[in-house]
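Question:
Write out your own:
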Amino acid sequence: MKLKLVTMSALLLILWNGAGFSEEAQMPAMSAEQQAKMAEMQKYTTPNENHKALEPLVGKWKSSVKFWMSVGAPPEVSSGTSENHWIMGGRFVEQDFKGMSMGQPFEGMGITGFDTIRGEYISIWLDNMATGMMVASAQFDPATKVFNENGTMSCPLTMEKNRSIRSVWKIVDNDHNLYEAFMNDKDGKEYKAMEITYERVQ
């Protein structure tokens, strides 16, 4: 399987660049059908206006974090910093977060991008407080400047393998944004589990 993947990747690179060998072994010219296929593929592999919706999240931020362990529990309050930058030629935004959680140093990393084939935003999150990843998809509402996201995660608090999580990430303005995450309690009632306010530093 790995060999097939490597072979396919090499073939795509050759087709993409038009030539992958020496001058003595040039690839033949593509047919009109192949050129149309390549143009279509390029359309779906190139960043577009949907990626631009992530631009206000790029930069350096200071944050205030509230985390609720359960319904009715007092929130744990902490602060942190976040550096968000474009990667992979403007296809994804990588978030590097550092702060404190439960009295311990906390660091997390998120990657978000727009999947042009699926027509939705896809994100993953991983940190040093768990061995699993949160995987989610979202739609962006340009009228309210809100990313509405739904995903799953393995939860060390409840030991659920696929705990549902809903989040709302609102771009308040160019220098402020708000992230809220919601989970269900043991009775299936939704409650706010996290709130992070971001203020731009740079």
